[in-house]
Amino acid sequence: MPDALQGLLTALFWSVVTIGCYVVARMINARWQAWWSSPLLLAPISVGIIVVLMHTGYASYIRGTHWIALMMGPATVAFAIPLYEHRETIKRHWPILLAGVAIGSATAIGTAFALASWLDLPTALRTSLLPRSTSTPFAMAVSSDLGGMPELTAVFVIITGVTGAALGEFMLRFMPLRSSLARGAFLGMGAHGAGVAKARQIGAEEGSIAGLVMILAGCFNLMMAPLVALFMG
Questions:
Q1: CA angle at residue 77 from 74 to 82, to 5 degrees?
Q2: For residue 64, is pLDDT > 60?
Q3: Which long-range contacts (CB under 8 A, 24 or more apart) does 18-26 make?
Q4: Which among 71, 25, 29, 32 has a CA at the least distance from the CA of 48?
Q5: CA geometry: angle 128, 10, 140, nearest 5 deg
Q6: Can you tell me the distance from the alpha carbon of 139 to that of 132, in angstroms, rounded to the nearest whole number?
Q7: pLDDT band for position 115 (50/70/90)?
Q8: What is the phi/psi pair of residue 119, to 5°?
Q9: pLDDT above 80: residue 140
Q10: What is the distance of C-alpha 206 from the center of its chain?
Q11: Taking 70 as the threshold, does the pLDDT of residue 5 lie above it?
Q12: What is the gyration radius of the CA atoms in the chain, in angstroms?
């Protein structure tokens, strides 16, 4: 078989496997709406198991699926749509949203930096860890600007999101957060995409606020990335 055709078939195979695992994960999540059924968790684990069983290296896998990673660019731009749709909410609550996003982002970056420094992690690993508390498209862009490894950052984002959604649901039972704005912002800031999914299970308004806060946090982190890079330099 010619090398070009073999490469094309390999790329097609891994693309189908990746998309198929995600579709199946979505179906499982629709049936059992729990933290462990999140597609953010099930899809990567499923793909990872298949990759290991087939003894495929990361380089071979990413060659066939790099186009999926490239879609992060359009996905980031598409976040402008919900910002426009919720412009009235932003106008009404912009002081609270701005303060919450700024404090939440600073806390997330600060704690990640402190933990990485305490563990004496290598610089590349440290910079990959910093943007873990934003959604994947933003996090990978920030990681790239800081000199980190975007693919590794995506793993940290998944771990943060799934853990945050699971703990967030538990914490809401005891925290005095009564308004939909507070509950949605809590989950959107603390668990980004997974938190938005969990907030939508609680209520439509909570889900909208969580999605808005997640996007604003991503934009804030993108704008702050040059300052963080200057500080680390």
A1: 125
A2: yes
A3: 18/43, 18/47, 18/65, 18/68, 21/46, 21/47, 21/50
A4: 25
A5: 15
A6: 6
A7: confident
A8: -85, -5
A9: yes
A10: 18
A11: no
A12: 19
